[in-house]
Amino acid sequence: MRLNSITSAGLSLAGLASAAFMRGNGIKVGPIDETVQLRSVSSTNQSTTGWGTFEQLLDHNDPSQGTFSQRFWYGIEHWKGPGSPIFMVNPGEQAGTNFNKTYTTTARLPGLFAQELGGAVVILEHRYWGESSPSRSSPSLISLG
């Protein structure tokens, strides 16, 4: 029993050390294949992909702070209607531009999941990257720290 505890503690420390060493060296997972074209027209000649914006609260604890326009992209080629899954993708700390070229298609896992399960894919841009940044001012960016 004691050996298991010591082994577990040792493995935990090794994992923490590894995580601390790797911090800040993440891989950029953006849209790698620039040659992929959007498939935006279905057999009914209706678009199955698109993008838009919505008004997102600056501070969910204080709605009086106002809103900003947050971008999103979607792919509904495989969506089977209400009750079907929706797979959310966040590009992380980078702009969401061009993620729709592959992440809403079967070139990436979210698109494959959507195809297999009859779902849709929604890509939501991070609030401080790309065109979804509410403001570049210091007071606005203070919450990042």
Automatic annotation (TrEMBL):
Q: Which residues form the signal peptide?
A: 1-19
Per the UniProt entry, what is one GO biological process? proteolysis
Q: Which UniProt keywords apply?
A: Glycoprotein, Hydrolase, Protease, Signal
GO molecular function of the protein, one example? Answer: dipeptidyl-peptidase activity
Q: Which Pfam families match?
A: Peptidase_S28
Entry superkingdom: Eukaryota
- In which family does this protein belong, per the annotation? Belongs to the peptidase S28 family.
Protein name as catalogued: Uncharacterized protein
